[in-house]
Amino acid sequence: MRALCWNGINDLRVETVPDPVPVNPGDAIVKVGLTTTCGSDLHFIDGYIPTMRAGDVIGHEFMGEVVEVGSGVRRVRRGMRVVVPSFISCGRCWHCRRDEYSLCDNTNPNAEMQEPLLGYPTAGIYGYTHAFGGYAGSHASYVRVPHADVGCFEIPPEIADEDALFLSDAGPTGYMGADFCDIRPGDTVAVWGCGGVGLMAQQSAFVLGAERVIGIDRFPERLAMARERVGAETIDYTAVDSVTDCLREMTGGRGPDACIDAVGMEAHGQGLGYAYDRVKQALRLETDRGQALREAITACRKGGVVSVLGVYGMMDKFPIGVVMNKGLTIRTAQQHGQKYLPRLLELARGGRLSTRFLMTHRMPLEDAVRGYELFKHKREGCVRVAFVPE
Amino acid sequence: MSTPAEPNGAENGPQVRRALTFGVPAQAILDAWCDPQVQDRLLGDVATLLEGDAERMRWRLHGPWGHEMTFESRRVDVDAGRCVRHAGSGAHGLQVATALSVQPAPGDFGTEAMLEVGYALPGGLVAEAAAKLAGATPRLLAGRVLRRLKAWLETGEIPTLDRNPSARRDANDPT
């Protein structure tokens, strides 16, 4: 089959690789219908996240049709049109039983690679480094889905492929980020980042009852999407002296009740702090440019919630003193998609959650290298590229 | 009633301990640990079961750089519902002793298991360094085996990339 493979830093190629086969009884093989770029892919493409190997098939956000199931699969059938969360979860361990699916104990074959860094390993994920399991990803004609009964969600006929695609990752990640905020009537939620996850977090914050949502970014087309598609107010951080001051003024001097970081380790910004991060990251003296997260912590009102969706490594200069003195609550996780998928499918079917607008570009998988170029450099107003395998 | 295990020399060598909590009853862990077919799955590509039952097992160990040796293990002690001990020996003086002990975990966590492995390696420090180079350090292997046992007991399968590799085995080989 054809697949998009990582071959080194900034070296992606579409190649012919072996087809996946079911190995365990709970496996299914899904013929990929649509698969999309994710901002978190850029971290290993740029070389900031280790344990990639030459030839790795990347991609973790996808939908498609089940073409084969293992002997132990009960709920999922051949021919079923499904969307699959990016984390692989067993559904039976202590964490899965508490809806903490990305913390699953039983799906990372390379757990020992994560343990020294994280203390305890997380679940496996499709196409996202060997420390996260080494599973082949979804930018391919077919993908093996372990624990298919837990990971495959049937797409109702009323929901088109294009509307289901982003319920794999951007949708549940954004919804989870808003859910973490414990939103109450009258709340204002500020969201750093107006990419796929940021826009989904903004939309979800409204769904969960926020009165005001403020999106922060620097790209005019993304800010326009936040305003026009989501109904958020926006701040172009390149047009203001201080985002924190701006948010303070917009909220009567209180600050947002909750702040969501949907940016992560390659934040852009301004000023000395950003220059410091940039130099240190370029010299590999730290893994992260943490401007967005630091700003969210500073801008959040006293006693508020900071919800972290951005992917980070071992960030230094983390302002724990600000967190402590302001009594902030930090909530964060990789997405627990299996928890949120039923609700998101219901919202999508009822027209209360719209995701298709994220797909600014659509192209054959054969053009995926060009797709990632557009996505990475945000050319042609690119927010997300969906690839269609042959 | 527990009976003391016979010393086989491994108790004088390096020791590793790994703990993990299982969401299954203690007896299920001990039973699975003594099942040669389960052991065969847990050890994966490190060893292949040649023959055996709950008391004795004979293995072919797959060492670094294609080196292979036979290894025999036997159950030397059972403390019902609490601990099982095995001892084994192979060519060139390899000695291994393991103890898997279990106890109830607090709350609804299930059962805490502790795997202790003592070993004496042929070749001493040189062999140990070679094993480390090959990525099969005993501590790592003990952790991997325990995790596989947990996955097997909790889900009925062991997470694997078998026959579904992502990266190429050889970066210079584009096939």
Structure description:
The complex is a heterodimer of chains A (390) and B (175). By secondary structure, chain A is of the alpha/beta class. Chain A is built from 13 helices and 18 strands. In chain A, strands 3, 5, 6, 9, 10, 17 and 18 form a 7-stranded mixed beta sheet that branches. Chain A has a 6-stranded parallel beta sheet with strand order 13-12-11-14-15-16, sandwiched between helices. A 3-stranded antiparallel beta sheet of chain A has the order 2-1-4, with no helix packed on it. Chain A is globular and about 60 Å long. Chain B has helices spanning 26-33, 36-43, 124-133, 138-155; strands at residues 15-22, 47-52, 56-62, 68-79, 83-90, 95-104, 111-120. Chain B contains 4 helices and 7 strands. In chain B, β3 and β4 form a beta hairpin. By secondary structure, chain B is an alpha+beta fold. Chain B has a 7-stranded antiparallel beta sheet, with helices on one face. Classes of the chains: A alpha/beta (390), B alpha+beta (175). The A-B interface holds A 15, 18, 20-21, 23-26, 52-57, 72, 90, 92-94, 105-109, 111-112, 115, 124, 127, 130, 133-137, 144, 146-147 and B 21, 23, 108-110, 140, 143-144, 147, 150-151, 154-168, 171, 174.
In short:
The complex is a heterodimer of chains A (390) and B (175). Chain A has 390 residues and is an alpha/beta fold. Chain A is built from 13 helices and 18 strands.
